[in-house]
Records
---
Amino acid sequence: MRELLEKYWNCETSPEEEQKLREWFAGNDVPEDLQKYRSNFLALNNFQKIEAPASVSRKVLAHLPSIRIYPVLKIAASILVILSIGTGVYTHYQQEEFLKEVFSETYSDPQDAIKETQAVLGKVSSSLLKVEELQEDQIEQEKDLTEQESDSVEQENNSVEQEENIKLEELIIEEE
């Protein structure tokens, strides 16, 4: 019985073996060291399996909502597949439209392509010339400002120098 009890504690017993343990603990020949487990097994004997009458079971089951999960999952999976295919087709269509738009301006006559290229390059060239002219104008303006600043600094230095000369002359006159 000790081996069977050890199997019970390791959760390795069958329902029949558990019943044998309950019956053995219900008897009077339980050793002193195992008496502490007796109340547990006696409590298990006192529990009885209660079953509702069939009519009550049917009534309760009739009021419960009947949800079958697999059909719902099948429908959800189908919707997901349809949406995925639709998204793929839509994306492919949008990509084709974009590529058509990008490559729609092609020329069958090489001369037309050359003329168009020359026209575009002429516009680019004129834009670059305008930028160059604007940069030159900006450089000239900066030079003018620098010259004006240096002229004003020079004038200021001259005026300070003149004032100093006047003061020196006044001092000389005063000393005489």
Note: The mean pLDDT is 83.
---
Amino acid sequence: MTVWIERYWKNIAVVIGFAVALWFLWPAPKVANLGSRGTSIIAFGDSLTAGYGASAGEDYPSRLSALIATPIINAGISGDTTESALARVDADVTPRDPRIVIVGLGGNDFLRGVAMARRSRTSARSFRKSTPPARWSSSSATASRA
């Protein structure tokens, strides 16, 4: 093996160098944010968002809020699946004037054996049709509106 490396190390270095250069020079896709008109940041999700098992103020929306010195509304409900969470988007997200929505769903779907492909299709379709323009940040393979 070392004989092979000694013989072709220059070729290997050229190929690796070319690959790195190509990676750096490849044009990145343009990302355009929607003109979010809302004013609030909402953490929307299941028990991880709600803070199940955490002490008061130790859930991630509270910690993030303290870190960025900006209020974050915690709209997490323990036990929510993607489908049950989507049923409450119109009640728990839309009326709160969202500018940014952080979505954390999928844990309960996994525990209950819900197929990821079904979860992704359901959530993406529902978010697009039921919510006003906002920036959606997703921590699972659900919807991403950015």
Note: The mean pLDDT is 79.
---
Amino acid sequence: MAMKRCRRWAERLLPLLFILGASSVAFAASSGFQAGGSAKRLPQGVPHRVAIGNFSGPEAEQVGDDFFVGVMRLGFEVIEREHFNEIAAELKLQQTGMISTSTVKSLGEHLGVEGMFIGKVHAQRDGQKGAYVGVRLVDVGSGKVLWSATGSSAESLCRSLADDLNLAATAKLPRRRYAVTHPARDAEPYALLHQGSIVGVKTSDGHRYTLLFDSWDDQTPNRLRFCFGVPPCPIEPFSISASEIEDIDLLSN
């Protein structure tokens, strides 16, 4: 089913723990940041200004580049790679794999960031075939790991991060829960949805997801298009059959 594929996109090791304090690092417009298209939409408390360390492991450069693009699309202000490498070289941390949780504070303060992503590509998981990627988001001020995830690709990690950003943004929103027994396009809650509505979806296989409603799929009757991320949809939408949805929470309309 469609949601079995989606579950792989949103896999993660730990829940999001965005506990960053209100204080921020001094930042100047000339300090080498690239701003994502939705930076102001990130939930309060999430570090907006971040750096992405050089990934280590096989094919690390390509995976790191893909993750960089994905993080920008989610709305973060990301330090330019050239500026990152300059500062890392000054601190003698230029070699791939030299960035660790213990060196994040010094590097982050020099870069003027609030958080830093550290990633590693592993050749294979024990007992399984194929490479996988692990990423951590570290608070520059405290050195605490705020978020971590594993995935089969940079895309799956960004989907996981997008889903967790949605969870953080909607944690305190009131929920309108609907049991879906005979789903139809013109029945509640579907009649209330419009593009950008944030919903909690429980599928028939028992899994729950926080998603953005995009549109009805006009090519196939009773299929809905959703995406992970904060509005507007930063990642290509995918479709789910209404018959696969057991219940749905309308979090934002």
Note: The longest strand covers residues 208-216.
---
Amino acid sequence: MSDYWRNKFEGRTEGGHRYRSEQWFKKSVQEHLFHIGEQANRQNVLVDIGCGAAELTVYYAPFFKKIYGFDFSSSMLQAAQKRVDSFNIDNIELIQGDACDFAEKIKTADIIISTQVVQFLSYEQLGRHLDESLKILNPKGSIFIFWIIDPKTEWLWDIGYLSDNKIGLPQLILRLLFRQKQIISRKLQRKPGTTELGYSHAKEKIKAICSSKNLEVEFSNALYLEYRYNASIKRKA
């Protein structure tokens, strides 16, 4: 993760979720557990990369033997510990680390997840994240990358086309022009990411990265976020 994103999140005490309600956190985890399936059980170890303030992490706790939550931000981890304590949870351990540096801090994992994290990683860093995951992932384990920004639909969401409050064509054109101006400005300033949301990642490129590491991947649309999708990754048989 670049220093730009580190500086952006250092000092923060909450994640960048669309909604802040416990209902939203719960149903987000329910969606993810649906994809994890039978691997969500009290015999398995879950690693949550980029756990932030543990808004979602605490709701995984009843389904796993042990959870390791990683985040690079000390302020996020402090907020996460307060939240874990308030829920009286004893099977979550919080550790400082990031998506490309965590494997040496634990022994093994059955499931490795991240949610709204890879948008802050380039394709090269995404490859390093998978390499790091494979160091500790059990042979039959899985990696789940949740809520990846889809370049095919993100721009439609950004200009308001996917909004419930429909806007006219002139406004859409103005928003599209403004978006292009922001993208160009971002490149000139050498800021990472396509927009302030981060990088969007094409499914074809993620599939190619996985294939180069002898991994297979399946994609699914995010249930509650119009412009995002999920990736389920495991070793090829």
Note: DSSP finds eight helices and seven strands in the chain.
